[in-house]
Amino acid sequence: MGEISEKITQKNNNSCSQFPVLTNSAEYGIVYQKDFFDKNIAINTDNYYVVHTEDFVYNPRISKQAPYGPIRVNHLKTGVMSPLYYIFKIKDDFNIGFFEFLFIGNKWHKFMYQNGDSGARSDRYAIKDKVFNKLPIYIPQKIEEQKLIFEINHKINSLLYLQHRKMELENQTSKAIYNYLFDKNKPFYFKDNKTKKVFLKELGTTYSGLSGKNKTDFGHGKAKYITYLNVNKNTIANHNLLDLIEIDKKQNEVLNGDILFTISSETPEEVGLASLWPYDDTNIYLNSFCFGFRPNSKINNLWLAYELRSLKIRKNMYKLAQGISRYNLSKKSVLNLQVDVPSDAEQNFDSKFVKLINIQTKFLSNERNELLLLKKFLLQNLFI
């Protein structure tokens, strides 16, 4: 490192300087401190270092994303940064972009592990400047290869950004369509529509989740139970988010078409979230912080699951949550909720339409995950 870089030691000695204060974030890179914290944290910046565009900054603060602290390049205009950071400039003989992606990867972590120290503060990693400058870096001799490695990674990042924006727009569109389809005041699609208000208790019956269990009963056995997180996060339950438990005929078994509700949470916004179980597995139980609802044949189960996640139902569900530090819900109060039930034709139309939207959203998410895997592969294999 010491052979291809030089430490920046220029101090901001003018207290009237108009240079903005920058910070080095593991997730977002180098950003304006005011934007990151929504306010100015630094008061006196006289001894701060001046950081120019394309200077690199090592932040010794460790996190899950940066176990040895992040090293990021400054793409912003000239600013000032805390003297706690190590600031350096790569010499002109090399491609800056090559090093940007090198430090985003983890090839340099082994050296830090072997030569550094977590220090007196557990949230910072300590390594002396003269030791840091001994960090070995393998660089392609040809500048053209350095540029090519940078361009490949840069294009992957550009694709990820575009995919992220595409997902944001898709989610906004999906949310708008979803709220429109399940708005009781929407224009009707079918001439024979006969929407009517029905109490949930008229559409089915409830049952309880697991009872009489302790922590030793979980994690083994030939049966499975649906986790709280599965119900909380999914309108249609994830078949893979199941945990093991022993077969117990005294417990209520979850059947295909049942709708599951969260009954307890630390926030009222997460109480009464509904999730459909559309699978034919046997010996499936429900966690004890949820209860099940078994609809009768008069209703489209998929439509009902979407309806129960709609904005108008969620607003009514918030009001039913009781508690202070933890919020709970009674089955009776949920069963007394009224639902606007349209004709069978509209139930089928709405549920199929939303399902198609969700398939598209999942497809975009899978594309993004594949790009992330490709980026990880490149960071691990393009750098020695």
UniProtKB/TrEMBL annotation:
Keyword field contains Nuclease: yes
Which residue windows are coiled coil?
none
What domain of life does the UniProt record list for this protein's source? Bacteria
Q: Which InterPro entries does the record cross-reference, listed alphabetically?
A: Restrct_endonuc_typeI_TRD_sf (IPR044946), Type-I_RS_S_subunit (IPR052021)
Keywords (A to Z) from UniProt: DNA-binding, Endonuclease, Hydrolase, Nuclease, Restriction system
Q: Which PANTHER family match?
A: TYPE I RESTRICTION ENZYME MJAVIII SPECIFICITY SUBUNIT, TYPE-1 RESTRICTION ENZYME ECOKI SPECIFICITY PROTEIN
This chain's protein is named: Restriction endonuclease subunit S
